[in-house]
Structure formats: C-alpha cells, structure tokens
C-alpha cells in the first residue's frame, strides 16, 4: 500500500513539474502590462471544482481525490516521505543493530512514548486553530475592494458626455483602482512581483508621472494607499461645483460608496498587519510535530514474543493507522498554513493579479463606454401576457408556503379560539365565526344596562369575560352613562342590543 501511494505521488509531482516548466514563458509575459488582459492564457482564481460536485451522487467526492493541483498530496508529500523514512530508519535500527539489552530499553522507551503521547489534545488544539484561520480567510475574501458599486454610482451621478466629463469619470475610477493596487502591492507577493516599483504602476497606466511626483512629495512614513482616495474626493467636489454632480445628495452618495471602498482597503491592510497571535501558531506547530516525533518510537512494532506488555501481538512492519493519523493531523495543520495568508502564491491563494485586471477593465467600461449607452426601448415579449411561460416548470408544483396545504379541523379551530378568548376585539375571519355558530355552540351577546350595578343576571363566566370588552367602548359612552356589562344568552338580549354587538364574538 505504501509503495503504491508513494509511486502515485512521485509520478504526479514529476508531471506537475514538467507542466510548470512548459508554462513559465506565458506566466512571465503576464507581468509586462497590467492593463492588457492575456488572451491566450487562462487564469484561474484558486482551484474550482464546483461544477464537478453540482449534483450529489454515489461517491461524488471520490473523483476529487485524484487531482494534484491544490491537493493535500502536494502540500503534504514532503513531510509524509520524511516521516516514512525516519520510521523505517528506527525500525531497521531496532531490528538489526541493537542488542538484546538495547532492544529491551528501546521497547520501554516505546511504551513510555506511546502512553504519554496520547495526552496531547491534538483535535482540540487543531480544531480551534483551523476554525479561527478559516474565519480570518473568509473575512479577507469579503474585504477585497471591488469597484462595482462605486462605478455604478459614478456613472449615474457624474454627468457629461463631452471629453471633460469622460475624463472626470475615468479619472475617478482610476483613482479608486490605484488605491487598491497600492494596498495589494503591500500585502500580496504576486502583486509585489508584478509592480516592483512605483514606476511600474505608472508604466501600467494606473498613475501618471505628475501623480507619482505628488505621491513621493508627500512626507509620510505610513502607507499612502489612501492618497488616491483623497484625490477622488477633491475631484468629486470639483464636479459638484461645475454642476456635473446635480445636487448634494448625489455627492453624498458618491462619498458613502467611496468610504465603503476605502474601508475594505483598510481592512485588508489590518488583516495583513494583525495576524493570529504567534504563540498560538507556535503551540499548534509544536503540538503536532512533537506528537509524531514520539510516534516514531512509540508506534514501532516490536517482536511478538516481547509484545505482551505492549498488547501488540502482530508485527505489521508498516504502521498503516499511524500513517493515516499523520495524514489527517499534519494535513489539518497544512490547511491552516494554506489559508492563514491567502495573498501568497499557493494554488488556492487569491489570484489578485486577475482581479486587478478585471476591476480596471469593468470600471472603465461602466463609466465610459456604457455611460448613457442604452439599447432602444421596446415592448418585451410578455407585454400582453401575465408572465413568462412555464413550459419547463409546468410539471413542478409551485411553493406557496409550508402551511398552504394544511387542513384545519373544527376541533383545532375551537381549541385555538378558546386559548385566545381574552382578545378585546375579534380577529377571527368571518368563516371561523360561521363555523363556530353552526355547531350549536352557546351564542352570547353583550347587554348594556344603564345606571345600574345589578350583576345578578351574569353568570360566573360572564363576569370574568366582562372585564375586557369595556375597553372597546368609545369615550363618549363612558361620559354619558355608567354601564355594567354582562354576557347573556342570545335569547335574553333584545334586537337592538344584538344588532349593535353582533360583530363581537365571545366564547
């Protein structure tokens, strides 16, 4: 099993190395011009396999186990081979080099290491660390500055189809993209290799020579990624003075979207600045590697005649379950190493260069080519119809709510109405009232007696209910008369009283 696995890993690595060497000239050409999208090279952001698992099927994830790029094999094979080599070395020394007395001492050491290595809380330490690293990884992805909202606001609120208006909109979006390039150049190794100096940014077209001089002239020891955003605000204010931004509300909308964009740039910078505490990373790393260092001795198979104390009666030579344990735990640690900083050059790291190219391209298209560019208005296909045809979904049932097909019996409704008898105003639908009356239930009405406190005609149930409906009467009635409310049988109420209180149902 082990030689076969090692053969597969080595063959895959050799094939990947050959493929990488063949693609190096194309990747080198990518860094020549940032604004020109390469048309012959397909860039992939991380390793996507969403289409392959679109449908759940038998052994659906199995096909993913044979991929090399972005796989755990690529991250782990070096440590795995070193562990196998060291384990084999200790095994050979134990079996072929040590004397009887030395073998006995080795067996005692193995028993001691195997006993106390189990005290290391591997699952707890690794689980919490990976959970924290994953939340941090996802937070960095959601903090990536995308100009989509900002470019829509600029296109819709900075008016003017003349050359000056075009220049103003394009410059606004160029400032926003320049800010993201400066911040990504500070945190991403890929972007740093692409723009080694500020002159490379000028050559790429994100910044002019005059803007570079202004950036260098500003005396500040801190990162100046915010400076193009300040230029953005100044230019937006000038557009408001020139009337290209119609009112202060539109200017406020521009400023709000710009602040959201700036907040994401700032958040990326702080993610790069404030890492997971180093002590925690050290604890996790020491725990994992020390555990498997002890396993090199503690998990050795001793000879069966000496294995009574160790409770091992089979000499397997190859520690299959120990290798699986190494694969799981060290692989778990490698996941943390991969996602703790997604702005590197690993297979699953963010393709920041592709995002930079995408952002500048769609920004210029939105505020220039697409500005005031509308297709002619026409009546749509469903102008006279109620909606699109449901030929595809005709055989499917439409979801109307989980209780849409629920059937409520009379007993269920009576129980619910009895539980809610204290409501001062009836909120039950007329159908429920009719069902209540049609069952021959005792029908009651309100009777009002002026200037009297006689309650002898009210039964005990009526006296309890009588406290609530008093609040439904108008203030004028309370001013004119002093009333005592009773609930009586319908036969005891005259026609006027019954008609007046017919809309109130009391159970």
Domain unit count: 3
Largest sheet: 2 strands, antiparallel
- Helix percentage: 55-70%
What structural class is derived from the secondary structure elements?
Answer: mainly alpha
Low-pLDDT segments: 1-10, 16-43, 436-446, 448-485, 494-507
- Would you list the SSEs in sequence order as H and E? HHHHHHHHHHHHHHHHEHHEH
**DSSP summary, beta strand count:** 2
Cα-to-Cα separation, first versus last residue:
78 Å
Shape: extended
Number of helices: 19
Spatial order of the strands in the main sheet?
A: 1-2
Strand content: under 5%
In round numbers, the mean pLDDT is 77
* Rg calc: 38 Å
Organism: Tachysurus vachellii
Function: Forms chloride channels.
Subcellular location: Cell membrane; Membrane
Pfam families: Bestrophin
Overview of this protein structure:
It is a single chain. Strands 1-2 form a two-stranded antiparallel sheet. The chain is extended. The N and C termini lie far apart (78 Å). The model is unreliable at 1-10, 16-43, 436-446, 448-485 and 494-507 (pLDDT under 50). It is mainly alpha-helical and 507 residues long. 57% of the residues lie in helices and 3% in strands.
Question: Which key terms come to mind for this protein?
Answer:
two-stranded antiparallel sheet; extended; disordered C terminus; 2 strands; mainly alpha; 3% strand; 507 residues; disordered N terminus; 3 domains
Secondary structure layout plus pairing:
Elements lengths: L1 H28 L42 H26 L2 H18 L4 H21 L5 H10 L5 H25 L1 H6 L3 H7 L4 H9 L9 H15 L6 H26 L4 H21 L21 H20 L12 H18 L40 H10 L10 H9 L5 E7 L9 H6 L9 H6 L2 E7 L5 H6 L7
Antiparallel strand pairs: 1-2
Helix pairs in contact: 2-13, 3-12, 4-12, 4-13, 5-11, 5-14, 6-10, 6-11, 6-14, 10-11, 12-13
């Amino acid at each position: 099993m082990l030689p076969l696995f090692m053969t597969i890993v080595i063959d895959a690595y050799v094939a990947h190395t050959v493929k990488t060497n063949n693609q190096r000239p194309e990747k080198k050409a990518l860094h020549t011009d940032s604004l020109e999208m390469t048309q012959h090279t397909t860039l992939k952001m991380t390793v996507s396999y969403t289409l392959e698992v679109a449908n759940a099927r038998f052994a659906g994830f199995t096909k993913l186990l044979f991929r090399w790029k972005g796989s755990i094999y690529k991250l782990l094979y070096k440590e795995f081979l070193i562990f196998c080599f060291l384990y084999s070395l200790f095994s050979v020394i134990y079996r072929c080099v040590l004397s009887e007395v030395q073998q006995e001492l080795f067996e005692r050491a193995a028993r001691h290491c195997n006993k106390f290595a189990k005290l290391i809380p591997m699952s707890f330490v690794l689980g919490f660390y990976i959970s924290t690293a994953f939340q941090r990884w996802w937070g960095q992805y959601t903090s990536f500055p995308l100009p989509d909202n900002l470019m829509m606001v600029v296109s819709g609120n900075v008016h003017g189809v003349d050359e000056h208006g075009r220049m103003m909109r394009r410059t606004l979006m160029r400032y926003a993209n320049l800010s993201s390039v400066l911040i990504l150049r500070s945190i991403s190794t890929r972007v740093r290799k692409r723009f080694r100096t500020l002159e490379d940014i000028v050559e790429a077209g994100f910044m002019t020579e005059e803007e570079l001089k202004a950036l260098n002239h500003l005396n500040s020891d801190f990162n100046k990624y915010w400076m193009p955003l300040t230029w953005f605000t100044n230019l937006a204010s000038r557009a408001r003075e020139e009337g290209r931004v119609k009112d202060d509300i539109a200017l406020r909308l521009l400023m709000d979207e710009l602040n959201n964009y700036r907040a994401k740039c700032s958040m990326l910078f702080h993610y790069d600045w404030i890492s997971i505490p180093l002590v925690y990373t050290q604890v996790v790393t020491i725990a994992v590697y020390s555990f498997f260092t002890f396993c090199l001795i503690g998990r050795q198979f001793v000879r069966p005649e000496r294995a009574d104390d160790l409770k091992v009666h089979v000499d397997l030579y190859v520690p299959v379950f120990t290798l699986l344990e190494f694969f799981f735990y060290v692989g778990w640690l490698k996941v943390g190493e991969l996602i703790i900083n997604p702005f590197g050059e690993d297979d699953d790291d963010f393709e920041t260069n592709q995002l930079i190219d995408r952002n500048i391209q769609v920004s210029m298209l939105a505020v220039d080519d697409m500005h005031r560019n509308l297709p002619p208005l026409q009546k749509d296909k469903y102008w006279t119809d109620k909606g699109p045809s449901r030929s595809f979904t005709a055989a499917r049932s439409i979801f109307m709510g989980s209780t849409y097909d629920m059937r409520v019996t009379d007993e269920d409704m009576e129980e619910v109405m009895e539980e809610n008898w204290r409501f001062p105003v009836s909120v039950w639908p007329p159908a429920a009232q009719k069902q209540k009356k049609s069952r021959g239930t005792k029908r009651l009405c309100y009777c009002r007696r002026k200037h009297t406190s006689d309650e002898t005609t009210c039964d005990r149930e009526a006296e309890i209910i009588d406290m609530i409906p008093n609040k439904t009467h108008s203030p004028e009635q309370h001013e004119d008369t002093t009333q005592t409310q009773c609930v009586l049988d319908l036969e005891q109420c005259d026609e006027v009283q019954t008609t007046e209180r017919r809309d109130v149902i009391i159970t």
